[in-house]
Amino acid sequence: MTSIAFGGGPTLDQRRSFAGLKHGTHVPGYRGYCPQIKYRVGKTYGDDTNLLSTTVDHRMPADPVGPPPVGVDQSGLPDATGDNKYTKSMVPGYTGYIPRLTFKYGNTYKEDCDVCIDEFLTNSSTHDMKAHDLKRTVRSYPKLQPVSRDPGVRDYLNKYRDTHPIKPILVEDKRAYTEPPMPGYQGYVPRIRPTELGLGVRYHQMTKNGLEAFKHENSQHHEIHRHPVTIERGDSLVQMPSYNRRLFLNDGMIPKYTGYCPQRRYRFGNTYGDTTRSLDICTHKQACYGDTLMSLRKSLPV
């Protein structure tokens, strides 16, 4: 008896009767959706799907056993030359990639490879033909001339400049450095997180304050570098920024601050804000806590 692939073997009715599947029955192990199947109990999967196919309207499954697959013309497949990868003599066990092979079922490896390779070569040739036709169509049209070389456009722009000497002809695409971005911008904006410039204001105003402070610091830095370096430099060029450089402020620390606060672990009974406001590191009036400690050491008797 010849195999099914070559037209031999049992007939379709004989195979259907051997499997024992009634019309409308899903194959056991089918993972797709079947209406009302979760409310059926007490029978096998085949009997439940058979009864549901007669009582519930749903798409009927394909036949469990179909006709033998149509073979591929071997003359259209390339011969193995040692350099090409997809040939008519694919060896089972090949671990390389074959287009659309993962979507083929029920045939031998050789048959599926022939079908996939034939489809891939056909689609590739069709795509190359369409690309060639598109290039040929584009070349058939006359080339567009740049508008900048048109003397009429040049004369019109010169006339517009003579009649409107103040208005700019072209709009600048580059934004100003201090223009705040749109709300939702995820990029970095300087000075809004480590300082108080981003507290209690909207995103537009917060980013504007941060960019203006950053621009002011850069301009001040460049201004200092233009002057010659001396041993003693006065404070005329050095200006304090618009925000406080202190980390521990007099108003206390914001709740959920995960940094280290000296001596906080020894305070009890108050909220986080009241506790930090009572610490020496937040109550001092100097520019930094180190200056406060230096003044206290100088006031101590020797």
SSE inventory with pairings:
Blueprint: H1 12-19, H2 45-55, H3 109-140, H4 151-163, H5 203-226, H6 272-277, H7 280-283, H8 289-299
Outline the biggest β-sheet: none
Give the integer mean of the pLDDT values: 79
Number of strands: 0
Helix fraction, binned, reads 25-40%
| Count of helical regions | 8
Rg on CA atoms, Å: 41 Å
Distance between the termini: 115 Å
Q: Which blocks of ≥5 consecutive residues have pLDDT under 50?
A: none
Descriptive report:
Helix content is 36%, strand content 0%. It contains 8 helices and no strands. It is mostly helical and 302 residues long. The longest helix has 32 residues, at 109-140.
Short description:
The protein is mainly α and 302 residues long.
Task: Give structural attributes.
302 residues, mainly alpha, 8 helices
